[in-house]
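pinned: reference chain
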Amino acid sequence: MFSNILVATDLTEKSVLAIRLAAKLTAQTQGAQLTVLHVVDFPASLRDWSMPSFRKDSKLYDDLVARQVQAAEATLRAQIDELHMSTAAAIMHPILALVRTGSPAQTIASCADEHGVDVIIVARGKGGVLGSTAEQVVRMVGRTVLVAPVAGMRQLLKRRQNVIPFPTAKRRRSAAASSDGRSRS
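pinned: its structure tokens
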């Protein structure tokens, strides 16, 4: 099906589900490559060196970046090791783990181009909706992007059914007509 898969992770539990999905897809294709990417993002003030402490001391900035990357690498390795232990029979292919710095969506798109991936797998954001990074990736790349399902999504959808629907123009006219005693079609 897909021979070269990139899964973007933010190191959350939802992203672990995306990694599991990618591992299953990789296991179905002989010779498939799985790359797991985490992008360490920094606030614009840090990226632009606008914070006075970083303008004075570039070593402080470099140390901060190195610590963030090191922590992300350790977490990513632990997640992949846990995946190997929980589904050892299904994962026959090596997993390439990458940690990069920069703008998440742009870095994911660049990594996809660099590695020639067939599909990018992302997780859902808060509340089960598409997150801003995932949405940017969908808009930026010219390849398939799969959004991993979230456990418990059915309960979330049931809760959303109880939400008052967005007032469309027809609903507003109908509400206005019923409030002044007339009915319009």
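why pinned: The first helix runs from residue 13 to 27. The radius of gyration is 22 Å.
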